[in-house]
Specification:
By secondary structure, the protein is an alpha+beta fold. The protein is 37% helix and 25% strand. The protein folds into two domains: 7-79, no CATH class; 91-241, 3-Layer(aba) Sandwich (Trna Endonuclease, Chain: A, domain 1). It is built from six helices and 13 strands.
């Protein structure tokens, strides 16, 4: 069975989109003599409507086009979501902001990667990780691969850090692909213990997928587990609705 995001996710998402749109400049895509352009609309000090056109000759043309496309995408998504005001309580120990998220470099682990597994230009350590990355993208979630975080004074590199901007928090996904290897299990158990000592709670801050050398979970299972976890996070975050 294919699990879908629940109503509480949609409520939180719609409220975040409203906030995001209100903070974005009113930039729209268009054409000018057959060339893709962006127009930014505004209001002057004396109340007159203004607009500025971005063409390929402008230094900030690509940024304007990107903003216009994001705005258009969010507006289309907003049309399919419910319209209700809610109050949320941010849970989870891994807090995050857009500014900090954008500044985090991924693939920070200095240990070399010599595999053939690449997703969107990111070389990954296993086919398992590549499958999970594909699922996260399919769910339209923001993630970074092997960022550096500090736990108990040590630096660790989570396989995936997923950002939920709607709540200002992240959760971590770890892919343990060789649980039939005792030495591998011992090494990664220590890593999981570090997460728990730092206050990470399973199914809120941390999701662990397990596989064996010759047997990995399928993508539907991976997808459903991620969706169920996010639905649970949203359910726990909503404290008031009217």
């Amino acid at each position: 069975m294919r699990v879908t995001f629940n109503d509480n996710y949609k409520l939180v998402r719609s409220m975040w989109i409203d906030k995001k749109l209100s903070s974005m400049p009113d930039i729209r895509l268009g054409k000018h003599y057959g060339v893709d352009i962006a127009r930014e609309y505004g209001v002057s000090k004396n109340g007159h409507r203004t607009h500025h056109m971005y063409t390929p000759k402008n230094a900030d043309y690509l940024e304007a086009i990107s903003t216009a496309r994001l705005r258009e995408s969010l507006m289309q998504e907003r049309e399919s979501l419910p319209n209700s005001r809610i109050k949320i309580s941010c849970i989870g120990v891994f807090k995050m902001t857009d500014e900090k998220w954008n500044s985090l470099p991924q693939s920070a682990n200095p240990l070399p990667i010599r595999t053939k597994y690449v997703h969107n230009g990111i070389r990954m350590r296993s086919r398992f990780e590549m499958l999970v990355a594909e699922v996260i993208d399919e769910l339209n979630l923001q993630f970074k691969y092997e960022i550096a975080i500090t736990l108990g004074g040590d630096i660790v590199y989570p396989d995936f850090t997923v950002y939920l901007p709607e709540l200002g928090m992240c959760f971590i996904i770890e892919c343990l692909g060789k649980v039939d290897d005792p030495d591998y299990v011992i090494t990664n158990t220590r890593k999981l213990i570090d997460y728990y000592k730092a206050g990470f709670v399973p199914d809120i801050d941390l999701l662990v997928f397990c596989g064996q050398k010759e047997s990995l979970p399928d993508t539907l299972f991976i997808r459903n587990q991620i969706v169920r976890m996010i639905n649970g996070i949203m359910d726990e975050s909503i404290i008031f609705q009217h």
